[in-house]
Each structure stands twice: as C-alpha cells, then as structure tokens.
From TrEMBL:
Subcellular location per the Swiss-Prot or TrEMBL entry: Mitochondrion inner membrane
Bilayer disposition of the protein: Peripheral membrane protein
InterPro entries, per the entry: J_dom_sf, Tim16
Record GO cellular component, one term: TIM23 mitochondrial import inner membrane translocase complex
GO BP annotations, alphabetical order: protein import into mitochondrial matrix
PANTHER family, sorted: MITOCHONDRIA ASSOCIATED GRANULOCYTE MACROPHAGE CSF SIGNALING MOLECULE, MITOCHONDRIAL IMPORT INNER MEMBRANE TRANSLOCASE SUBUNIT TIM16
Protein family per UniProt: Belongs to the TIM16/PAM16 family.
Gene3D superfamilies cross-referenced by the UniProt entry: DnaJ domain
Signal peptide residues on this chain, from the entry's feature table: 1-18
UniProt-recorded name of the protein: Uncharacterized protein
Keywords: Membrane, Mitochondrion, Mitochondrion inner membrane, Protein transport, Signal, Translocation, Transport
C-alpha cells in the first residue's frame, strides 16, 4: 500500500517537473529569438488578448485628447513607466499594461486606424 502511494507521488511529481521544464524551455526560446524587441515585449506584456485603441487611450490618459501624436504616446508612456517603477514601490503589472497600450496606439497610428472618430469625449 505504501509503495503504491509512493509510486503515485513520484509519478505526479515527475510529470509536474517535466511540464515546468518544458514551459521554461519555451519561454527561454521565445526570449532568445525575440531579444526583447517590441514584438517580444508585446508577448511578455500579456498582449495575447487584443487591446482596443480606446482602452489604450484610457490607460495612457489620452482619451480626451483631440489629436494624438507619437510624441504624446511616448511622453505618457515614459511618465507612467517611471511612476510605476517596481524599485520605487510600483507595479510590474501596471507597467505591462502601459507597455501594451503604447504598442497598441503606435500600431493603430501607423496603420491609420487612430483618428478623431475613435476618440470619445465625456
């Protein structure tokens, strides 16, 4: 009876270890191939679910802006990243949301999908 429990315990532990090593290996490959460029940062920022430009504007505080430029996006991004620095008690989660918002708005701006019709005013 004790041998059976021990075998189950070892089998379960071994399969969990194998899955963990496999996931760590996949992440290491992604990091090595991407080299922390904007594309890989988007993956690590949790941008697997698409962020809408409207949500991105709200995160960066640009939801009431008449016209958004790349300079506005970069300034807000830099300010919020500095404000939420984990070394100063900030949050990595919030930094990832700010990074995702920056990438979303930059992409929308380059593709011409960011215009005054998407801007909501209250």
């Amino acid at each position: 009876m004790a041998a059976k429990i021990l075998v189950k315990l070892l089998f379960t532990s071994g399969s969990m270890l194998a899955r963990s090593v496999s996931m760590a290996y996949r992440q290491a490959i992604l990091r090595a191939e991407g080299g922390f460029t904007a594309g890989s940062a988007e993956v690590f920022a949790g941008a697997t679910s698409k962020m809408s430009p409207m949500e991105a504007k709200k995160i960066l505080g640009l939801d009431n802006a008449d016209k958004i430029t790349i300079e506005d996006i970069l300034k807000k991004h830099d300010d919020l990243i500095t404000l939420n620095d984990p070394k100063d008690g900030g949050s990595e989660y919030l930094q990832s949301k700010v990074l995702g918002a920056k990438i979303c708005l930059e992409t929308a701006l380059k593709e011409g999908k960011l215009d005054d019709t998407n801007t909501t005013k209250s």
